[in-house]
Each structure stands twice: as C-alpha cells, then as structure tokens.
Amino acid sequence: MHMDKEELTMPNAAPKVEPPTANAVPIDLRQACIAQLPEAAQWFHGTVRDFVDHVTDSATDVAYTIARIRFDSKTAQAQSQTHAQQQTERIASVGQELGSVLQGIEGILVQVQKVDAEAARIDQLAAQGSSQSVGMRAMFAELVEHNARNRAEIQTLQQQFVGVVQQMGMIRDIAQKTNLLALNANIEAARVGEAGRGFAVVAEEIRKLAQTAEKSVGNIGQAVGVIDKSLQTVGQATEQFSARMQANQAQVQAIAAHFGDIAGGVNTVAKEAAATSTAITGQAQQLRGLDADFNTMAAQVRNHASETVQTSTRIAEALELALNKSQRLFESATLFRTDSQASRVLGHLDQVVGEIGSRLHQAMERGEISENDLFDESYQPVSGTDPQKYTTRFTAWVKREIQPIEDRYLALSDQYKYVLLVDRNGYAAAHNSIYDQALTGDPKKDLAGNRSMRLFNDPVGLAAARNRQDFLLQVYARDTGEIMRELSSPVMLAGQHWGAVRFAFV
C-alpha cells in the first residue's frame, strides 16, 4: 500500500486535503477533507472515522496489553524453565547423593554383617575360654588341695621317722649296754675258771649278738638318716610348691575372673554388633524405599516441569496468535486516513522513508558513498563492547547524514520513542542521538544509552528489516523491558531492498 505524503516536513505545516473518492486508498476521513461533503455524507464519514479510530485504538491497546502479557509470560516461562532445570538438576544431584548414600550404607551393612559374624564367633570362643578358665580354676583349686594333703602326710611321715630315729637310738643304747654286760660277764666267767666256761660261751655269744645288733642299728640309722634327709628335702619342696600353688591360685582366680569379664564384654559387643547390623539393615531398607519414592517424585517433578513448559509454550503461541490478529485488525484500519495517532505515525513514517531514501540516492549520485559501501555486510566487531557493536563502510556516513533526519522526526511528538534506519540484516549504524550516548562501562546504562552500531537480529528486528510490504505493525517488548508499538516500512535503493525505517510510538 502506498501512502499519500503530507506536504510538510515539520509538524505545524497545513495538510493539503481533497474530498474522498471511491478509488482512493487510503480513504481520507479527516474533518478538513469531508467538510466539503453534504451534511448526511459528513455524518456518515464521521461515524466511519470514529469507528475506525475506535478500532485502531482498541487494536493497538489490545496489542499493547498482549505484548506486555507475552513479555511477562516469556519472562515467567524463562524463569520457570530455569527453575525447572535447576530443580531437576538439584533433584538429580540429590538422587545421585541418595544413591551414593544407599550404596555406602549397603557397603557398611556388608562390613557390619561380617563384623557381626566375627563377633559371634569370638563370643563363642570367649564363652568357651571362660568356661575352660572356670574348669581350670576348679582343677587348680583341687590340685592345691591335694598338694596340701600331701604336705600334711609328708609332715606326719617326718614326725613318724623322728620317732623311729628315737627308737633306734634306744635300741643302740640297749645294744651297747648289752655288749658291755656281756663283756663283763665274760671277764667274770674267766675268773671263775672252768666252772664259768659255759657261762663265758653264752656271754660271748650275747656280746656278739649285741655288737651285731648295734651295727645293724647303725646301718639302719644311716638309712633312716638318708630317708629323713630325703623327707626333709621333699617336705621343703612340697612347702615351696604349696606356696607357689597358693600364689598361682590367686593369679588363676584373677585370670579366670578377667576371662569372665572379657567374655562378658565380648558378649556385649556381639549383641551390640548384632543390634547395629539389624538397625543398619532396617535403615538400608528404608533408604531403598526412600530412593524408590525419590525417583518417583523426581519423575513427577520432571513431568510437571515439562508440562509447565508445554503449557507456557501454548500460552505464548496463543498470545502470539492474538497479537497477530490485533495487528491485522490495525492494518485493516489503515485503509482509512483519520486524525488518529496511528494515521499521523503512518504519515510521518511515509515521509521519513521518502526523505531517507532520497538522501541515499543523492549520496550515491554525488559520489559521497558508493553503492558497494552502502550494501557492505562485513560487520567488523568493536572490541570491548557488550552487547557487541560492529562497524561497516557506511557506519560513519549514516551517523553524519542520516542520524539528524532520524532525530528531526523523533522530535515531532513526545509519543515517538525512536526513528531508526536499519539494513536488511537489522544493523543500525546510528540510533537517535538520545540512544547514542558515550559509553560509560556500565552494562545497564550502556544497554539503554548507547544502541548504535548494533545488530538487532531478533525476530522483531529481522521482521522489520526484511519486510517488503508497505508497512508492518509490531507490538513487542524491547530488551530493556519497555513495551513498544512499532511501524516499519521498507527502504529501496538502486532497485534493491536495502532495509527499513523503524518508527516506534506509545
């Protein structure tokens, strides 16, 4: 659609008006144009104009609202996706940690079960040792008792041997006395002579018998002495052994008591190990159940996150469809020229496109800049810029020659937000001066304050840059979060599509 240019470049110039005709597009319904018509026709055209203005305002308001909702929806969707991703990652991490804990618990359970089995075996050995130590203590006590009896018997035997030795001494005395009496009798018998010969023979025999008895008593005494010494030695050894046995008995009793304590302690450890094994087994079972429940919950969270994203996507698609419909409704209303804001913007857009197109042609004809330079698409990155900025061979010329034109049309109304020339890839060599401030190094300030030399190749930017229809209406949220209504129109140069002028308003 081709728009009739207003014969002005500044806002206060009076428009040239002609009565509407049946074939004129757009149909001019402005009051100055229909004032020459009959009253009934004026009323009809005025009603149509009011309807068109209402439709236009409503369409742009609806589009504005939908754009805000879409922006908020996209923001919420992005946050939801990020949150879902983070939540899924956290759940996966917790699941892995839980799995690791479960594996660790199961590993500990295996070790505890081994310790439990070993503790039970040691407990059995300790119980056997304790029982054996009790038996050993009883046997040792019995041995001490037997040794005491033996010692008593040896002492009795020693005492008896003392009596024997005494009796042997008495026998030796008697033998010595008998031997002495026999000797005296033999001497007396010799004095008597022949009459005492028989008595002397008897006395001699008695003396020999007494000597023999004395000798035998001596021999027996020696043997008894040896036996007595042996008994004394045995008695002393028995005494020493008895003393050691009594001393060892206390040690054996203490060892048996310690063995009993050890057995009790081992039994307690075995019970505690068994209890620990049972408890860990229960905990492992609970963790297995928890792991299964957690996996189920993680799957539910993932499914819910996926459903949320799908729902958000469907909402965004519905909003996009509604926005497109409101924009088409606006486009239908542009078949009429009224005094509305949209009509004024369309008029100014048509003017600025014509003026910038003429200036580009003029520059090529005068040799100010070549066609190749104007179609340069070798975007050279400017280091140290974020968002990234680029330069081309036409950047400086556009800033010098086109930016003043952009600023002049931006100044036509406080409701205009920017007037921007972009090439067919969305590259803006020079934005309006208010958006071409010196870089500060603060990303937030520079994002809004310096928007020149940037590639606006987002979907909205590319749609505007590559549109070849008479105009394109878009309502969208800028990267600063500001909701914009934008009309754009293509710029043709040397028979080719060069780019577009983007005209934003509120």
TrEMBL record:
Swiss-Prot/TrEMBL GO biological process terms: signal transduction
SMART domains: MA
Residue ranges constituting the Methyl-accepting transducer domain according to the UniProt record: 62-298
GO terms under cellular component: membrane
Coiled coil region boundaries: none
Entry keyword set: Transducer
Span list, region Disordered: 1-21
Name of protein: Putative bacterial chemotaxis sensory transducer
Species assigned in the record: mine drainage metagenome
Taxonomic placement: unclassified sequences, metagenomes, ecological metagenomes
